[in-house]
Amino acid sequence: MKALVIKVGGAFIGDKQAAANLLGVIKELQAARPVVLVHGGGPIVEEWMTALNLKTVKIDGLRVSTDEQMPYVVGALAGTANKDLVAQAIAANLVPVGLALTDGAMVKCTPMDKKYGAVGSAKAGDAKLLNLLLSQQFLPIVSSIGASSSGQLLNINADQAATAIAQLLHAELVLLSDVPGVLDADKQLIPELRPADINRLVEQNVIRDGMTVKVNAALEAAGDIGLPVIIASWKQPQALLGLAHEGSAGTRIYPS
User: Fold this and answer.
1) 16-30 helix and 82-91 helix, angle to the nearest 10 degrees
2) What CATH number belongs to 4-253?
């Protein structure tokens, strides 16, 4: 049975009840297939930046992470956000292991253009550590902090981090947000989409705004992994139980 890589964002981490609900579902999923949880934490980073009177700048939708800010970005993502999720997983009777992309050479990270500061891209590396943990029924909880080959700490987009880990494990990827999936013009869930369908719905203005970003991220990830990627909601985690035996949940985005 393929492993399942589930990616969540920072808004989810701040909702204790939502986290408890999802982690309860993950415990059920673990009985059928291995699970890795990958997280970002943008809202938590924003809270830290505000508290420290540090200015947030974004270029092309990416947060610029300056050398001055990186200790706080690392602390927020690999520290507070990660250990908060680890603690909540313990409360859900799971056996979590808190990690970052830096650990076990699981992901190779490379700095992006200098205009973004300490922001990097990620590619699959060595699966040995994750495979060992998954074989023993641990739940790896991975923050999107990586490091370059020269030892520079890097802030990695969480979608890209999750994609790299899914590539590494040849796993199914689920991108969770606050929506149940892609909805049609009648607000009904669309169970699956291919590139031609997506183009048509964008032209019809059915897929727009933030959903366009989500769908494009899923489509790019599906192309990288060579497997469909699922968009679903952390607000409705019970829907994910359909994935226990490689069934359906949310909207499945096919690479072709």
Assistant:
1) 60
2) 3.40.1160.10
